[in-house]
Amino acid sequence: MKPDSPQWPHGLPHVLLIGAGVVGRAIADAHAARNLPFCLADQSEEAIRAAARAFDEAGYATRDGSLAGGSPLPESLHAITVGDPSSTDATTAPIVIESIVERCEVKQEMFAALQAGLGETAVLCSNTSTLLIDEIAGRRLRSPGRVCGMHFFMPVHARAAVEVVAGKRSDDDAIQAVVDHAARLGKRAIRCQDGPGFIVNRMLSPYLNQALLLLCRGASERQIERAALAYGMPMSPLELIDWIGAPTMYHAGKAFTSAFPQRIDPSPMVPALLKRKRLGRDSGGGLFDYDRGRRSQQLSDPTQQLIETYRTDRRAFSDGDVLLLLTIPMWIEATCLLKEGVADSMSTVDLAMAGGLGFTSDANWSEFFAELGTERIDDAISRWQSEFKSMRKPDDAQVA
Ligand code: NAD
Fold first, then answer.
1. How far is the CA of 245 from the centre of ligand 1 (A)?
2. According to the model, what pLDDT value does residue 363 have?
3. How many Cβ atoms from other residues are within 10 Å of residue 101's Cβ?
């Protein structure tokens, strides 16, 4: 399939970003920072206006609408073009990165409309965190092979990699185009197979959930932060929850729980944050309060109240216990990912941890566990597995 098909409309940048919400905007910023022209579209006119104002203020060339005359985009979308489309390298494959609401049927409809409007050359990437690429490609698309995953991590500017996810039917050239596009954004590609949560969210979900469980069982937020930093994570898991935002946390948690119910006790904190509209740092506050992007030292008052509501224990955990309880669930997931073939090797898992989660230790992530040693890991598992589902032995856990 020729990338520069006549179906691709003249004057349209080769990059179309659909969805200008939390992560869509961050992806747009990443393109602007690399001077890659793009068209950003959203059903919300306000979201596009806000993006246009921000790009104007930052000195980027913007213009309204995706195209003069005969837009191939669905009519329901508002759009701006940022950068000069004529500077687009005509040899690069046209690529769409979708970051709209996390609902499979809405994404399927969007991809059907885009493939009808843009022709079948365009590579259609979903930035879904929790849905399967094979399900998004569905049964209605004429060319399901053009669909793959391009999964970014928050904060996008600070993460060195993206997951490039191959569905069962994804074309090799489409996957290669996404890997090349990641390189143009200055990011490494974590290649993986389709599966619930791919690699990074699959490992992250039990870790973040565990942080919330520990908070309600007696560990302090300081202890959790200390353990995370000692482990090699760039920030507290509680702060990361606010970066991700309660809605995505909720969807990701539900996806993990329904795929692997035997390995998680979901914390009630995330649905409670949603109910209280404590949606995260982009919405004014989540577990912490934020003042012009600066996190409060302590958890917010509503969070403290929620901890008391859902408290199940007042245990005095040692820092060492908190470290083991936070980290071993990730090691268990990595073991399962390798057995299932979602990740092809431990070095891919190491790349996912460093490039996707910002694991900052001098050593690779897997070396942390090599140093910990099988005996200590097994001891911790035996000690805690009856209390935490996430601490059950990989051999006992059903591998999908
Ligand atoms: P968000 O709610 O902040 O933004 C979604 C945007 O999509 C909104 O601007 C909304 O107006 C628009 N939209 C919704 N339905 C649409 C439609 N039918 N057509 C056009 N526009 C539509 O959500 P978000 O947190 O930015 O997440 C978006 C996607 O990215 C989800 O699939 C999510 O799983 C994924 N993701 C999120 C994160 C994260 O940390 N928040 C990270 C990686 C991937």
1. 11
2. 85
3. 12
The percent of residues in the chain predicted with pLDDT above 90, rounded, is: 82
Residue 325, pLDDT score:
98
Does the Cβ of 242 fall within 6 Å of ligand 1? no
Paired with 193 in beta bridges are 166
From 83-92, 239-248, 253-262, 297-306, the region with the lowest mean pLDDT:
83-92
Host H or E run for residue 306:
helix 301-309
| Residue among 18, 40, 42 to mutate when testing ligand 1 (max atoms within 8 A of CB) | 42
Q: Report the atom number in ligand 1 closest to the C-alpha of 24.
A: 26
Q: Give the sheet arrangement for strand 95-98, strand by strand.
A: 62-64, 78-82, 38-42, 15-18, 95-98, 123-126, 147-151, 161-166, 188-193
* Residue nearest (by alpha carbon) to ligand 1 atom 18: 106
Ligand 1 pocket test, pick from 44, 71, 101 with the greatest ligand atom count within 8 Å of Cβ, gives 101
pLDDT confidence of residue 6: 44
Tens-digit pLDDT profile for residues 320-331: 999 999 999 999
- Tell me the domains of the chain and their CATH numbers: 15-193 (3.40.50.720), 201-391 (1.10.1040.50)
Using only C-alpha atoms, the chain has a radius of gyration, in whole angstroms, of 21
Note the pLDDT tens digit of each residue in 238-270. 999 999 899 989 989 999 999 999 999 999 999
Q: Which position has the token pair 């935002």?
A: 245
